Amino acid sequence: xxxxxxxxxxxxxxxxxxxxxxxxxxxxxxxxxxxxxxxxxxxxxxxxxxxxxxxxxxxxxxxxxxxxxxxxxxxxxxxxxxxxxxxxxxxxxxxxxxxxxxxxxxxxxxxxxxxxxxxxxxxxxxxxxxxxxxxxxxxxxxxxxxxxxxxxxxxxxxxxxxxxxxxxxxxxxxxxxxxxxxxxxxxxxxxxxxxxxxxxxxxxxxxxxxxxxxxxxxxxxxxxxxxxxxxxxxxxxxxxxxxxxxxxxxxxxxxxxxxxxxxxxxxxxxxxxxxxxxxxxxxxxxxxxxxxxxxxxxxxxxxxxxxxxxxxxxxxxxxxxxxxxxxxxxxxxxxxxxxxxxxxxxxxxxxxxxxxxxxxxxxxxxxxxx
Length: 370
Prior knowledge:
By secondary structure, the chain is an alpha/beta fold. It contains eleven helices and 15 strands. Strands 2-1-4-5-6-7 form a six-stranded antiparallel sheet, covered by helices on one side. Strands 8-12-13-3-14-15 form a six-stranded mixed sheet, sandwiched between helices.
């Protein structure tokens, strides 16, 4: 049985467009309605921050401070196994980010990740289809890290070792020398975590595909065929042997050309790349299905229903696909849901078709509950 977990309240001070704001939420469905640019998405990002210790949109913490203020603070209280947990995040321009749970500071932010799982669906997700492989690796890493602490530790270790190995290759070039034994030391730092990361990604994609296919079939009413393939240089190869085989190429190019940091996902529509042939609606259907599958996956692994953050999700969908998405999010597989929309009438129509408790907040210069 799923453990009850939802966000009861949220308080903001100097976060992005908000000088100060306070909210009390429904445990089921919460809607933020208002024009573009009034700060609806910033509220979802604040919730994301509390769950995963960082912004969904901007990795530089100080750039999320409101204009000329010196700091921001986000505080939220989660209902967690029938007990309240108060999480506080504060960022100052000249100091390290602080995160605390019930007034006790974390020594490592990774200790917090996964405690309150969350899934964000945003127009920014188009980068999963349109951008380079790094975005698709981030997608895999973000899911697995929410339920597997060892994976997150391996990822941190691997990225540090990769950075040091690349620095060493650049130093060799500058100094006009090459020392194989010192490079081999960093190879060893990559191999063990790299092999574990690869194995976890293989397992994750294998389990994700049927869930993803299920949601795409529902939203598209089985009118399109899609695919998802995990691509890795490591498939069927020995890591140590390949690092050795690529050593001369690495020396010439001054960076590491083999490894799980080159992994990618191939997103397919029919027999072609989604990026090349998919319409905006098809691409968005693909991404929404992928994120719904992510939520399913986390719930099955952890026994917890992730908080679902839906940013402008109904835009660029025809009425039939909107109806199918409403059908999906009305089901009990999902926990607490937050939705943003610019159209009050569209939102009213959607709410009239959902048999659930909800709250609606109008966002403009001031926040008001409808």
